[in-house]
Specification:
By secondary structure, the protein is an alpha/beta fold. The chain has a single domain, classed as Aldolase class I (TIM Barrel), CATH 3.20.20. It contains 9 helices and 8 strands. It has helices at 5-9, 23-36, 71-83, 95-99, 103-116, 133-146, 165-175, 190-199, 209-214, and strands at residues 12-16, 40-43, 57-62, 88-92, 121-125, 150-152, 180-184, 203-206. Strands 1-2-3-4-5-6-7-8 form an 8-stranded parallel β-barrel, surrounded by 6 helices. α3 (71-83) links the parallel β3 and β4 (88-92). α3 runs parallel beside α5 (103-116) and α6 crosses α7. It is found in: Cytoplasm.
Length: 217
């Protein structure tokens, strides 16, 4: 797949979610994001609000990284994040629901957050490395029914691993063309980024954004 550097940059959520990140680190992230021309920055909700330049979207996370929070807590966290400047929210599903094939509960959990932030872009993190293809597919469909805008592979924090081309392909087969697909976790170079896009990803979560873009300079 052939993309210009500028076009690839617009796929990227430039991400800093390490628990030790300071306000100075976040300010540095925003400066890097502006210089790289990426689509957004993604920061922890406690770091909001941030001073982002015009044209740079602000994303955050909720129920992160475990997804085991009560739905009411996720909804409240998302609503607070949007009220303090987040344009997009990346929520983590309750993995136990997915593993137990309780997909109505997965849908209900997502819907609680959707209802709390009706005007924000909502991305649903599935933690695909933990799930079977069938579970990924059914979670994608639950996210679609609940009104999500994107499904996303991974938090980047789970020991089972991050994004894979295969997981993106499964997600694309389930909801591609109707929902966006965000690949996140372990994308550290241009070739990997392009492979994810070729498989159907429409957004990339990257902390190594400069390295990802360097291959097209």
């Amino acid at each position: 797949m052939t993309l210009t550097r500028a076009r690839l940059a617009q796929y990227i959520d430039h991400t800093l979610l390490t628990p030790e990140a300071t306000p100075a680190d976040v300010a540095e992230l925003i400066g890097e994001a502006a210089g790289l021309g990426v689509y957004s920055v993604c920061v922890s909700p406690s770091r909001l609000p941030v001073a982002a330049p015009a044209g740079l979207k602000v994303a955050t996370v909720c129920g992160f990284p475990s997804g085991a929070h009560h739905s009411h807590i996720k909804a409240a966290e998302a609503a607070l994040a949007v009220s303090t400047g987040a344009d997009e929210v990346d929520m983590v599903i309750n993995l136990s629901f997915a593993l137990e094939h309780e997909f109505e509960a997965v849908e209900s959990d997502i819907r609680a957050v959707r209802d709390a932030v009706p005007h924000a872009v909502l991305k649903v993190i599935l933690e695909t490395a933990v799930l079977s293809d069938e579970q990924i597919t059914r979670c994608c469909r639950a996210a679609e029914r609940a009104g999500a805008d994107f499904v996303k592979t991974s938090t980047g924090f789970h020991p089972a691993g991050g994004a894979t081309v295969h997981a993106v392909e499964v997600m694309h087969a389930a909801v591609g063309g109707r929902l966006g697909i965000k690949a996140s976790g372990g994308i550290r170079d241009t070739a990997t980024a392009l492979a994810m896009i070729g498989a159907g990803a429409t957004r990339l979560g990257c902390s190594a954004s400069a390295a990802v873009l360097a291959g097209l300079e």
